[in-house]
Design brief:
The complex is a heterodimer of chains A (about 110) and B (about 270). With about 110 residues, chain A is mainly alpha-helical. Chain A is about 75% helix and about 5% strand. The chains are: A mainly alpha (about 110), B mainly alpha (about 270).
Chain lengths: ~110, ~270
Amino acid sequence: MNAVNNWNSTQHFWLIILGFVVAFVPRFVPLMLFTKRAIPEWFNEWMKFVPVSLFTALVVKDIFIDISSYGLVLTNYPLMIAAVIVIYIAYRTRSMAVSVIVGLAGVFLLSMFL
Amino acid sequence: MNKRRPNPKQVPDPTEPMWRSTLRVAMPLNLSYIPIGLACGILLHAAGFNTFLTGLVSLLVFSGGGQFLIATMLTINSPLLSIVLMLFFLELRYALLSSSLSPYLKGQSNRFLFIFAVSLNDENYAINYLKFATDKKWTVREALAVEHYSLLFWATSNVIGSLIGSALKIDLSVVHFALTSLFLYMIVMQLKSHLTVLICLVSAVLAAFFMIVTKSTLGLVIATIVASLIGFGLEELLQKKMPNSHWLRRMHSPGSKKSAVEHSDAN
């Protein structure tokens, strides 16, 4: 997280425009199609597993992968413990804000002591 | 205290103006956007976004996960194409959300659908889906108002976060865990059967494997596609061969609003 990004604002602007396109298309196209005709069953059945697979993959990247060398790291104890706490809190409270705040506080305190 | 869940049984006051009744429905979500929006604004500032662009990205992309991803990938100097591709796969889940809202938006003009899609997001989806499923009087205008309130709070928190980021020195590795927590929260909210837990584990192993092999975040995309296809295939197979398998059994979840939605679906 120490690397400084050297893009300028014009590049950021184009990133936002492209980001808008890829964020907008998956929200709009199904809405436009499926308000007029029925949703194919297989599409729904498959899409059901996409978010959970992607979120898990992203969490694994954050906790177990060293992003500069793409090597496996199994010693990120503060993050590993904080992740377990967040899972428990999310399960009990079902609250997004509480989960995020506990996660931030947890990783802050754990990285001071570990 | 427990105002997080909108109470569908609440009797609406007919004299209450729409802007106030919808604000009341959206308020718990609006408040929970503040800490996450602040964290996101701080990270975007650290990634080099100025305050104006932070506001713009919050309005146009309007996705906590997406904006955190942009910030993180910028700080590790990922190329533009790889950021946009990752973002596309992250946002692809909205195809599922908007498909499931489509029965309630039948007959609306494409212009309305456009405006509705722009400000659709995981959390306002959860509120609107629950309201549409349980409240016959819930209109598309009210649903759109809830979306716009959450968009307003999200963008404002991001802009304030960006200003905080320029004023204070903050440990970014800690702030970055806000995103990890957000994803963990969303995983937990998605765990509906033992099969989804299994797919999580499969995806975790595949993600580590493909990232190490490809030496890039493209591994995430491959892992997601493979794991979701395995989940899709296994579920089809189990439903045909062993419809009573414990893998398909619904998991217990305390106070889940998603399960409330499913129950009202079954009725």
